[in-house]
Amino acid sequence: MSDQQFTLIYDTYCGWCYGAAPIFDVLVQADIHITALHRRLFQGGAQLKMSNGFGQFAERADQRIAQQTGQPFSQTYVTQILRSKTEELNSELTARAAVLVHPQGAATEMALAHRLQKARYVDGLSASDPEPIIAALQPLLDGSMTEQQIRAALASESLSVEATAIAQRAEALMQRVGSSGVPTLVCTVNGQHQVISLEPFFQAPEQILSILN
Question: DSBA-like thioredoxin domain location, by residue (predicted)?
C-alpha cells in the first residue's frame, strides 16, 4: 500500500463531484488509504431554490460539466429539477445518509453517492425525497438496518450532529490547504498536504493512478 493518505471532500449534489465520479471510482478501488468527507454544502441558509435563478445557473454549469467529463444529465432532470417551481437544493438528507455508511469506508460512501447522483441527474428525483435515499442505503447496509430504522435514523437529530462534525472536519482541511470548493482531493505525506487537481483526469479517469507515490 502507498504511504500516501488521501482525503476526498465532496457533496453528493455538487455537479462537479458528479462529474468527477469516475475518477473517484478509480481511487477508491486502488490499494491506498483514502477517507471520504461529505461537505454538506446545501443546508439551512445555504439551500438554493431553482425558481430563484439557481436552476438557470445550474443548467449552464451542468452543460459545461457534461462537456468536460462526459457524465450524463438527462432532460428529465432538467425538466423536473432545474425548471421546477418548488425544488430546493438541500444536501441535508444525503449528508445524514453518508454518516450511516461512513464507517464502511470511502468505496461504500462513493457507491451511495453514485446511486443518489443517478437518482437526481438521470432519474430527476427530488433532493428532498427520502425514498431514493432509503432505497440506495438498504443494499449497502447489508441488512443491518430495516427500512423503518433507516427512515428513523435519517430523521434523527443525532445523525445531523454527526453529519455536522464530518462537514466541519472537511471545512477545516479545506481552509488548511486553501481550497474554496468541492470536490477537493488532498494528498498527505508525513503531515504535508497537497491538493490534487482533478481536471487533467476528467477524460481519462484511470490516469489518476499516476499520482500514487
Answer: 10-194
Alpha carbons 197 and 213: distance in angstroms, whole number: 16
Write 41-49 long-range contacts (CB < 8 A, 24+): 41/11, 41/14, 41/91, 41/182, 42/11, 42/13, 42/89, 42/90, 42/91, 42/92, 42/127, 43/90, 43/91, 43/92, 43/95, 44/92, 47/88, 47/89, 47/90, 48/88, 48/89, 49/87, 49/88, 49/89
Ordered by start, the domain boundaries in the chain are: 5-211
Per-residue pLDDT of the chain (213 residues; tens, 9 = 90+): 668 999 999 999 999 999 999 999 999 999 999 999 999 999 766 568 999 999 999 999 999 999 999 999 999 999 999 999 999 999 999 999 999 999 999 999 999 999 999 999 999 999 899 999 999 999 999 999 999 999 999 999 999 999 999 999 999 999 999 999 999 999 999 999 999 999 999 999 999 999 998
> Which of 11, 36, 4, 9 has the alpha carbon at shortest distance from 173?
9
Rounded to a whole number of angstroms, the CA Rg of the chain reads 17
Query: What is the pTM assigned to this prediction?
Result: 0.96
CB-hemisphere CA count at 13 Å for 113?
35
